[in-house]
Design brief:
By secondary structure, the chain is of the alpha/beta class. The protein has 17 helices and 13 strands. The protein is globular.
């Protein structure tokens, strides 16, 4: 055992402040810095790294391997198996887990060969309880709420604004813990599968005539009531769970380093969390070098990519009005975690932030699907960004490349149907569309149509 307990706390990211707050206090921005814009008053979770360093890197790796996907509560979870690095403040009996993490690291061998890569992988974070990476962060946040309620903190409900996946994760984890949940969704801007998840799990669901940024403004006001706890990524507890994506990838590679990691970017929380995960791995001696991280955005919602191209100018950020995009979950023009992402990316050597067109993301999905994947549009954004870097000669054939797939493709049937049925949005060329062939119910008719199809494909 360690000679002193593991601790973590909220800390203001302002170098001139660094005020600290306990994790069991409902607080999202520093009270001393005021939180008047996206940089001032941001909080992050800090860990007692001196205590963590009392174990050697080899001891940590052995411990995490012993726990990985086993049944001893709660350590079989991909998040809680690394509890000491994530949130040691939660008692095990208050952890709310649906066995998140442990998702497939898919060797995309055929697609990689088509692109000229020998070592290309897709981390399928959508192979999770509610079908997206949001489960990784929500287990930490809802567990801390469960802990606080057990300590007598008067939290009546947990609320979020969402483009779909956050609301699904919040509703499911709150239902498991018997905690009321509230979700605010932009009306007619999420898919039916995404909408039905919070409804089925009993969340109080509001459809607002606005976009995500408008929903976020409303929920921020609601959560000024201390009895309504905020579940969006402004709350750094979520990012603690999401940083285990980096840890789990390295673990799945037998604790070996990676060359490139490509992440779809919307509200900027996940890329900052993944970057922090790699930084923590390096500081604690698990890896000896950091990967090159690539942030990928849709061209129609690309505030971080614009700032990257400008060299992250030292001026107040002016939110953009995002245009329609097939990647609707990252259709965000005013990212909550923008400066957390920038501060993290500046610590990552040789990083990029790219944007891609609607045609590029749709084509990347279709090509990936033809090789055995079923990519959501946001994964298509990351795939298309990676393909640009291959074309530019930045990514080499021998490089180990991991694309983060953030959600299960089954949550976006309209995207797939529109592409394959000739209903793709303007500017998208459905080069690989594939619809059922209608023929009479006879063997001869099927045989004739099959022969025609195979002959057309040169088979």
């Amino acid at each position: 055992m360690m000679s002193k307990p593991y601790r973590c706390w909220f800390e203001c990211t302002n170098p001139a402040c660094r005020a600290t707050y306990p994790l069991n206090e409902p607080i999202y921005q520093c009270r001393l810095c005021g939180g008047t814009d996206k940089r001032s008053g941001l909080l992050t979770v800090r860990h007692d790294m001196d205590a963590l360093k009392q174990r050697t890197a080899q001891e940590w790796m052995s411990l995490f391997d012993e726990r990985y996907l086993r049944t001893a509560w709660p350590y079989g979870s991909g998040v809680w198996g690394k509890k000491e690095w994530v949130c040691p403040a939660v008692d095990n009996e208050n952890i709310v887990s649906c066995l998140e993490g442990g998702s497939n690291l898919f060797w995309a061998k055929r697609f990689g060969q088509e692109l000229g890569l020998d070592d290309f992988w897709v981390k399928l974070c959508g192979n999770s309880h509610t079908g997206s990476f949001k489960d990784l962060g929500m287990t930490v946040l809802v567990s801390m709420v469960h802990q606080m309620r057990s300590e007598g903190v008067p939290i009546r409900a947990v609320a979020c604004a969402s483009t779909g996946d956050t609301s699904a994760a919040l509703a499911a984890y709150c239902a498991a813990a018997n905690i009321p949940s509230i979700v605010l969704l932009p009306e007619n801007k999420i898919t039916v599968p995404q909408l039905i998840q919070p409804l089925a799990n009993g969340a109080t669901t509001f459809a607002l005539d606005t976009d995500f940024d408008g929903c976020m403004a409303v929920v921020a006001e609601l959560c000024k009531d201390k009895g309504i706890y905020l579940a969006n990524s402004m709350n750094s507890l979520r990012l603690e769970g999401q940083k285990t994506i980096a840890m789990e990838i390295v673990q799945q590679f037998e604790w070996q380093p990676i060359d490139w990691v490509v992440v779809p970017v919307g509200n900027c929380g996940n890329i900052s969390a993944i970057g922090q995960g790699f930084l923590m791995l390096k500081e604690l001696g698990i890896i000896d070098r950091l990967p090159r991280i690539v942030g990928a955005q849709a061209e129609n919602a690309n505030p971080l990519a614009q700032l990257f191209r400008e060299g992250y100018p030292d001026r107040p950020f002016v939110p953009m009005t995002p245009r329609e995009t097939q990647a609707n979950a990252i259709r965000i023009g005013d990212p909550i975690s923008l400066y957390k992402a920038i501060d993290t990316l500046k610590q990552m050597p040789g990083h990029f932030v790219l944007d891609v067109t609607e045609d590029e993301l749709a084509d990347a999905c279709a090509r990936a699907d033809r090789t055995g994947l079923f990519a959501c549009p946001h994964t298509g954004v990351a795939l298309a960004a990676m393909m640009k870097l291959i074309d530019q000669g930045e990514i080499r054939r021998s490089d180990r490349v991991v694309v983060i797939s953030t959600a299960n493709g089954l949550k976006f049937p309209d995207f797939k149907i529109a592409y394959h049925s000739g209903q793709a949005p303007p500017g998208v060329t459905a080069r690989l569309s594939n619809m059922p062939i209608k023929v009479p119910a006879s063997v001869d008719a099927v045989r004739d149509a099959l022969d025609a199809r195979l002959n057309a494909e040169g088979l």
